[in-house]
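Study this chain:
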Amino acid sequence: MSAIIPFNRPFIVGKELYYMAQAVQRGHLAGDGQFTRKCNGWMEETFRARRVLLTHSCTAALEMAALLAEVGPGDEVIMPAYTFVSTANAFALRGATIRFVDIRPDTLNLDETQIEPLITPRTRAIVPVHYAGVACQMDVIMAIAAERKLLVIEDAAQAVNSTLNGRYLGTIGHLGCYSFHETKNFICGEGGAIVINDPRFLERAEVIREKGTNRARFFRGEVDKYTWVDIGSSYLPSELIAAFLYAQLEQADEITAQRHAIHHRYALGLEPLARAGHLRLQAPADNEHNAHMFYIIVNSEPIRARLLAYLKDHDIQAVFHYVPLHTSPMGSQYGYKPGDLPVTEDLSERLLRLPCYYELSQQDQDRVIATIHDFFRESQA
């Protein structure tokens, strides 16, 4: 029996445990200690971001963004249905109506050509989701937002360290949101960050993140005591989380290079099956994406189900991805039904994600590739 190849495996690449021990020894385990500041500073410098604030998850960053955007009952927010539930929940929690847009067949990002027909006088924000770390058409989206006086909040959960024309994703919209969940490129178990690109949100972001208090100003000596000044919540991660993450960020180039090597090996090994018409490879494969995942799109949902079972029988864990939100029970509350977003529904039923993590060996990756070849060869027999 072969060893199981998991879909994902958390990894240690540098000084993660050493830095966590340092955090304990320094006697500061609550949020906003030295390692939190190091993480914020690293991202601000590397991504050329105006301000970055670490959070305990990308969900928290999205919720902060919704609060900063002052989204409320009667407002509408446009986003793709092919995304994680947190993208929608952040705005639904504020009482907003979610308006779902279909996705592009090439990148699986929201179709920017379908945004304008959804805009009404009640529209407050557009939330592009950079699927698989590949950029949405941000130039078009930002132009629409500027003309209609809308906010753009980038869900860059999968796109940390991805760029578009040299600009880092998450730094283009008014606000951006990152994830450091254990399935992402840089990890700390759970974790995230909010990127503040519009200066009008800088001061309030600190307040919301600190439970609605002006605590950050107090520690900078700008006020002689801190108190409750706004709504907010506890969105800070602990120093243990930040310490682990900072060690990962220090090795960002190495991690990214390894993921690109994995991405390239999959593309090369599966290209014959794509040429034969058995599947479609993830696209585009340029140098600006961060190689967050590798997916294939097969020709039908039954083929995907059989391939998933075949891989499982050969001790390989592959997965499908999002169930489109507009087809969910919550989606139906906004008036959606199956058939409303045909591209989203079609591709979501045929997409399959392959194992992709930092420590995936070439031997194991070749086994995944060979097993997929075996499946299609046996299917033709």
The chain is about 40% helix and 15% strand.
